[in-house]
Design brief:
The complex is a heterodimer.
Chain A: H1 2-12, H2 15-33, H3 39-51, H4 55-80, H5 89-100, H6 104-137, H7 142-158, H8 165-179, E1 182-183, E2 190-191, H9 205-223, H10 246-268, H11 274-288, H12 291-294, H13 302-318, H14 320-326, H15 332-343, H16 350-355, H17 357-385, H18 393-412, H19 415-433, H20 439-461, H21 468-471, H22 473-512
Antiparallel strand pairs in A: 1-2
Chain B: H1 5-24, H2 42-61, H3 77-113, H4 119-124, H5 127-140, H6 149-155
Classes of the chains: A mainly alpha, B mainly alpha.
């Protein structure tokens, strides 16, 4: 392991890669600050750039952007009560009241320290957990992989929130359907191309990710007339001191420790990412608090700010565990990273640890660097970075649109891709209006190809029978977990709607009688 | 009967799954492939059925709350249509007038559509930016950007 750490360190401290972390953190912070654009959009916007880099530098840049975007989201949550992304919504519960009290500086500093600690503890756990899990998963066979993919996809649907489970599953299936467009890699048969040459290669990952996360998010914000809202005015002089007293540090230390471990564990679960971690950590902290302290929550409690900030960063780190060791992304953002790695010719999963130790370790090491950069460089520069928010939206939005569109064009040099992007954006907008989640679709699309290969291999090896599912205890266990994950929300939803209907009938009868 | 977002979504995906399943039959296979345990149609067939079952499940369990109806109020659709048309025009312009000119036109168009009317700002925020990007791509990164069919037709390529 030590050898690996040194390999990773060697790659991560290369001047170019350090520059990638710094640039990534800055770009991420800026994009994350913009209301409506979160880590997924920020990472999606970086994909075209990573195409020209080697895989290690590419993923280092993306990891930096990811962290930066989460931090940027916290900054806008605290300063203007406009969370840039879902995982920092909870930050605004106590962060914004603190800013209103004239303690914005303290809130920002606390957010940065907590993010740093959460990320660092997460990175240390990752340092031990990832190689251990990778070693175990080296014994996996294609049947196990198939089962794992099924579990990953069902978990994403299961964790997608109340009332969204079936919709998330449909989106997973939709993503899998999109992945079947183009030439079938196993038989060479064209599928769903309708005679169009441009579709023979299938729908490109870059195009799909940029259209659904970058272009759609920007267009959605315009559709909601967010560009007409007044530019937020941030009074830099009113930031206040950024120092924390000894008592305050003592107050939040146990919270930070608890939320780090908790956030990491939540982050490891496929599908449950930083958002769920931050909400749960906030709730947990409230339960831990005494009755008197509970009253402070929502009015500027330091613990109420520390818990979600620590947990969301620890969860971001945790979500790299399934990505690096099993090749299954834990969140929409890591799904995009998975796609970018696959496009760069690196197959994340157990073999990554053996075949590309430089990528594996440098990501882990650079995550720590990313946290350090955020703390040392970003925090003091927040007043200057937030000035970028003052760029008028009518100038900023066309520029982001331009980057999304040319990002795709400059990789393929095919204008058909831009038209395809518009087509996908229209569909994505329609689906967003119907409240369908987008991340499960991308996950289904990315895992579709690998899943089909593993299913085909398993079926061929077992002569067409489904015996491979129960022949190995490992495969069976994973499938059973997937099945439980799949069935639980469906059953509870059916029960819920039946109970609701029963109640309605009872009310109607009561009214009638 | 109240038709909510869930009903619409379920119906749309039911149609999609049916169409997907229909076109699955069009996938050509090698002779004898249909007897193989796994062929090019296997996964699409599974997905078509799965999509159908899930869509029906969504329709059956759909919320009947009037608040969940699809409401298009408060959304600015004309601007979205204009911007998306601008993106399509940009893709056409890229082929005909090349990267630099189409970028300038796209940015000016975008700023204009979003309400910027000052000519000075329109020009300052587009021309230097487009020239910088064009210079960085074509001169620094050595990426070949086609000059556009119009110019190659007029002046020869």
């Amino acid at each position: 392991m030590l050898e690996g750490i040194f390999t990773g360190l060697g790659t991560a401290i290369m001047p170019f890669n350090i520059m990638m972390v710094v640039v990534g953190c800055f770009a991420g912070t800026f994009i994350g600050m913009l209301p409506g654009l979160g880590p997924i959009s920020a990472v999606a916007l970086m994909i075209p750039i990573t195409y020209g880099l080697d895989p290690a530098s590419g993923i280092i840049l993306m990891a930096g952007v990811y962290y930066g975007a989460v931090f940027g989201g916290s900054t806008s949550s605290i300063l203007i009560n406009a969370p840039g992304c879902a995982s920092t919504v909870v930050t605004s519960f106590d962060g914004y009241p603190l800013a209103q009290k004239g303690q914005a500086g303290k809130a920002l500093a606390l957010a940065a320290y907590c993010s740093f600690t959460g990320g660092t503890i997460g990175a240390i756990i990752l340092l031990f957990a990832a190689p251990a899990l990778a070693k175990v998963s080296l014994s996996f066979q294609s049947g196990d992989y198939f089962a794992l993919m099924v579990m990953g996809l069902t978990a994403v649907a299961a964790f997608s929130g109340k009332g969204q489970v079936i919709k998330a599953m449909i989106m997973v299936v939709f993503g899998l359907m999109i992945s079947t467009v183009g030439i079938d890699t196993m038989t060479g048969a064209p599928r769903f191309t309708f005679g169009t040459i441009d579709l023979l290669d299938g729908v490109s990952f870059l195009l799909l990710a940029m259209a659904t996360f970058a272009l759609t998010e920007v267009i959605m914000s315009i559709m909601k007339r967010q560009h007409l809202e007044e530019e937020p005015e941030i009074d830099m002089a009113a930031l206040g001191s950024m120092k924390l007293s000894k008592e305050e540090v003592k107050e939040v230390a146990p919270t930070v420790a608890r939320s780090s471990v908790f956030g990491f564990i939540i982050g490891v679960l496929p599908g449950a990412g930083a958002t769920i971690a931050s909400f749960l950590a906030y709730g947990m902290e409230r339960n831990f608090a005494s009755a008197k302290e509970k009253l402070k929550f929502g009015k500027g409690a330091l613990r109420g700010l520390a818990a979600p900030e620590t947990a969301n960063n620890a969860a971001s780190t945790g979500s790299f565990v399934p990505l690096l060791t099993l090749g299954i992304p834990g969140s929409g953002t890591t799904a995009i990273m998975l796609g970018a790695l696959i496009a760069a010719g690196v197959q994340p999963g157990p073999r990554l640890f053996v075949d590309n130790p430089d990528v594996f370790w440098s990501v882990i090491i650079s995550m720590y660097f990313g946290n350090l950069v955020l703390l040392i460089l970003n925090l003091p520069l927040i007043p200057y970075i937030s000035r970028l928010l003052a760029i008028p939206r009518q100038i900023l939005i066309p520029l982001i649109l331009f980057f999304s569109v040319t990002g795709v064009y400059l990789v393929s040099f095919n204008t058909f891709d831009i038209q395809m992007m518009v087509f996908i954006t229209v569909i994505a907008l329609f689906l967003k209006l119907l409240e369908f989640p987008m991340a499960p679709m991308l996950l289904g699309y990315i895992l579709g190809g690998i899943m089909e290969q593993n299913l085909s291999r398993s079926l061929v090896m077992s002569d067409g029978s489904l015996d491979f599912i129960w022949e190995r205890p490992l495969t069976l266990t994973i499938i059973v977990i997937a099945f439980i994950l799949l069935i639980m929300p469906l059953i509870s939803k059916l029960f819920e709607s039946r109970a609701k209907r029963g109640m309605e009938e009872a009310v109607n009868k009561g009214e009638g009688g | 009967m109240i038709i909510t977002k869930d009903h619409i979504g379920g119906l749309v995906f039911l149609c999609l799954s049916a169409a997907y399943g229909y076109y699955t039959g069009d996938i050509s296979m090698l002779p004898g492939d249909e007897y193989q345990p796994f062929n090019a149609q296997t996964l699409p067939n599974i997905l078509a059925y799965l999509g159908g079952i899930l869509s029906i499940a969504l329709i059956l369990t759909a919320s009947r709350d009037p608040g969940d109806r699809l409401s298009l109020k408060g959304y600015d659709f004309p601007i979205v249509v204009k911007l998306l048309v601008l993106v399509i025009l940009f893709s056409v312009a890229l082929e005909w007038v090349g990267f630099l000119l189409s970028t300038i036109l796209f940015l000016i168009g975008g700023y204009w559509l979003l309400g910027e009317r000052r000519v000075k700002i329109l020009l300052i925020a587009s021309i230097p930016f487009a020239v910088f990007i064009w210079f960085a791509l074509s001169q620094l990164l050595d990426i070949y950007l086609a000059p556009g069919r119009l110019f190659t037709t007029m002046f020869g390529g």
